[in-house]
Amino acid sequence: MHEGNYSAALDEVSAVLHQGQQPRRAHALAAAVLARAKAEGDLLTQARALYLLGRAEHLDANLNAGLSLARQAAHLFHVLDKPLEESTALSHVAHLASLLGLSEEAVENATLSVQLADTLPPGPHTVDAYNYLGVAATWVEADYADRILAKTIALAQRLLPPHAAARPMVNRLINELYRLELCLQRGQAPVVQPAMWAQLEDYRTLALQSHGAEASASDPCVPVMRSMLDIVHAGFLAHSGQRLVALDMALGVDTGPLPPWLHAFVCCIVARCQLAAGQWPAALTATQRTLDIARAQGQLNFELMSLYQRMEAFEALGDSAGVLAKFHAFRHCQLRQQTEIIISRERMASLRLAWREQTRALEALHTSTRVLERLTLEDPLTGLANRRHLERKLDELLTPHPDYPDHPATPWCLVMIDIDGFKQINDRYSHVLGDDVLRKMAQLLREVTRPQDLAVRLAGDEFVLILRDTTEPVGNLFVERLNRTIDQHPWSAIQPGLAVRASIGLAQAHGDDTSASLLRRSDLRMYANKTDKLARHLAQQAGAAPLDR
What pTM was computed for the model? Predict the structure, then answer.
């Protein structure tokens, strides 16, 4: 499949994911692209398909599967040196890891995503990276998370359209609700910070503006924003003493538009409102619902929050046995979270080992490719460039630069060289010795040319030189020096009595030359030189005075 077709297919997957309603269709489309990309060895498309597959699993609440795919995508983007896409994939890893309670991995990947994003021109990826660092930090250090999310909101307002600030805004409000829960767990009075009430109003304004905008009428994010506005507001009211108002608002929240991984959060806030209103049995029902959702999706942080809320309810009901049982469950969940972190690190170590082997295999493949390409462009006997290499170089030199089609080309010459009487050398001394002569001739040509020039074995005993930055008069001087080098070389070191001469023709390239015309012109001059030398030799044998070379 061509790159353009891949792009169209991946764009279709992204569009389906954006609508948020058909995760399995998005999964099927991305899996088909991945299979084709694997068959064709297209690593970049594989990485992009893996990233979209991870998003599809995330949307379908298969968080562990999504995390595994996101990790693979991030690694491939790293191997392919695609920092922008690597940053985006790392943000997704961080988000999924934070939902699964893998706080260390979440913060680690989010921090790396931010560092990568900061090396690039600012844009949506910058906002995403900082946003998911704030999300990851929520479960570790709420104050730090608040600072990061406040910075994210400022970045979004500066770099992106107004509605783009909605996500970091709601994440900052969720972070505040988690901070309030921690206050209760520490035995402290929870107090909503004034800045958070102001942030809630900013979010409300943004949600109402987006809801009323024609461009956002079909945007699936708009109903999500309204639902999140209501549940966060209810949570703030519950912690501020307005218990019945908070409960009415929480029970009226429309959870339909919300993605599955947010349902546990909503249930936690509903339970908090019921606890604040003294509705203990209802709170136990809500917390059980939270536990069911959190355990099904592997959301350890929400499981912990729900267990603590259940302890509050049992304590209020005077059920000490229930409190003790929930305390044990709470501690069990904490220890399981620690175990999950260890297992996660072990999995990451195994993945990194596999990735290292994959990287080595890729490097070996690249090395083999380079070696293969070199072999296809190199004459095996002499190590010089071969005909294919010459044809490629001539096409390059004779094609005008696309940015400067009318700019005069730098002068250069092509030299044709033919060893005189090479057949007789083979017949008299053997083909093995003939090969030695060819190798030695190649060595001499390498010695007399510059790094920017190209020496080629064309075929048999024919060689070609490309002399860059060389006019014909200068090239003729070079030919004279080359003739002397060949004539004066001690060929008898190869075989006593051996002497080797060569016929040489030089032609300067013209603007209207083709490869064929330039090769023909230099070839004709080489044969003219050979004919002239033969005529001189015959004249000498007839007793005529020797002529200068």
Answer: 0.62
Q: Which helix (H) or strand (E) holds 251?
A: helix 243-251
251-295 pLDDT per residue, tens = 988 888 888 878 889 999 999 999 999 999 999 999 999 989 988
C-alpha distances out from residue 347 to 181, 313, 338, 344, 502, Å: 31, 38, 14, 5, 68
* Residue 261 DSSP class: G
* Phi, psi angle pair for 112, to nearest 5°: -65, -40
Please classify residue 245 by burial: count the beta carbons closer than 10 Å to its beta carbon, then call 0-12 exposed, 13-18 middle and 19+ buried. Answer: middle
Torsional class of 19: left (φ above 0), alpha (ψ -120 to 50), beta (otherwise): alpha
Smallest Cα–Cα separation from 414: which of 401, 438, 398?
398
Q: 123-151: buried (b, 16+ CB within 10 Å) or exposed (e) per residue?
A: eebbbbbbbbbbbbbbbeebeebbebbbb
CB 21 within 8 A of CB 41: no
Q: What percentage of the chain's residues is helix, strand, coil (to nearest 5)?
A: 75, 5, 20
Kindly list the distances between the CA atom of residue 43 and the CA atoms of 12, 72, 76, 405, in Å, as whole numbers in the listed order. 19, 11, 7, 36
| Torsion sign over Cα 89, 93, 94, 96 | positive
Q: What is the pLDDT of residue 384?
A: 92
Q: How far apart are CA 513 and CA 518, in angstroms?
A: 6
Q: Residue 26: name the closest of 225, 222, 128, 34 by CA.
A: 34
When pLDDT is cut at 50, 70 and 90, the band that residue 162 belongs to is: confident
